Amino acid sequence: MSVCDNYKSVEEKVIQACKRAGRDPSEVTLIAVSKTKPISMIEELLPLGVRDFGENKVQELTEKAEILSPEIRWHMIGHLQRNKVKYVVDKACLIHSVDSLRLAEEISKEAGKKNRTASVLLEVNVAGEESKFGIAPEEALPLAKEIAGLPHIQIKGLMTIAPYTEDPENNRNFFRDLRKLSVDIAQENIDNVTMNVLSMGMTGDYEVAIEEGATHVRVGTGIFGERNYSI
After folding, report:
1. In what helix (H) or strand (E) does residue 223 lie, and over which residues does it extend?
2. Which residues form the Alanine racemase N-terminal domain (predicted)?
């Protein structure tokens, strides 16, 4: 199957998951995760109207952003080091992976230099996996309050990377917990903090994530096929 066929198949599954959850499919943004994939594969999807792409590495995002259509909305979904912020802050429409005040301060500073406001998500390690980045759930509200006072940065919601599993049902509770956490934070009515975005769910479990309230799902393998990690 072609990349376009794969995308349409995933899109149909998104629609079906929304139906099961009684949601409008327009509430869900499907991010095509193009890390390690060539520009030609991204270009195949553009005629379908696909504009949301996700990258894990700053260098890859910036190189692709310089070559491809300015209409593309780039999502920085990988771990972001503070010394790389300056390269990505004016190219990513959303930084999904903020997990410390120091990183947020750097984003605020660099966004200010470029006279823009950066949209970010707090990355929460809901499952408590030691191999994953992200803050513990109980740290999310205090961190949101600290970041809220910074200029040139806005918290739009939460992101999590659930454990790899053969059975997506195993991750349902993690998605449910992230949704509950976002509701709790939203009820605090913190200035500069909205909880409109829930970035959760990947190739193996995005349908369950949508059923539990995901607004953004990040699908790479399901669209582009297996990744080439030797690049």
Report:
1. helix 221-224
2. 27-227
Per the CB < 8 A criterion, the answer to whether 100 and 82 are in contact is no
Tokens describing residue 162: 């659930």
Alpha helices in 126-200 (DSSP H): 137-148, 172-186
Identify the sign of the CA torsion 39, 42, 46, 52.
Answer: negative
- Residue type for position 120: V
Per the DSSP assignment, residues forming a β-bridge with 74 are: 53, 92
Percent of the chain having pLDDT more than 90? Answer: 97
User: Could you tell me the fold of the domain covering 3-224?
Assistant: TIM Barrel (3.20.20)
Structure-token match 């920085």, residue found: 76
Whether the Cβ atoms of residue 139 and residue 92 lie closer than 8 Å to each other: no
Question: Bridge partners of 30?
Answer: 217
pLDDT digits (tens, 9 = 90+) for 118-155: 999 999 999 999 999 999 999 999 999 999 999 999 99
Structure tokens at 117: 């406001």
Q: What are phi and psi of 77, to 5 degrees?
A: -110, -10
Which residue is it, tokens 């500073």? 109
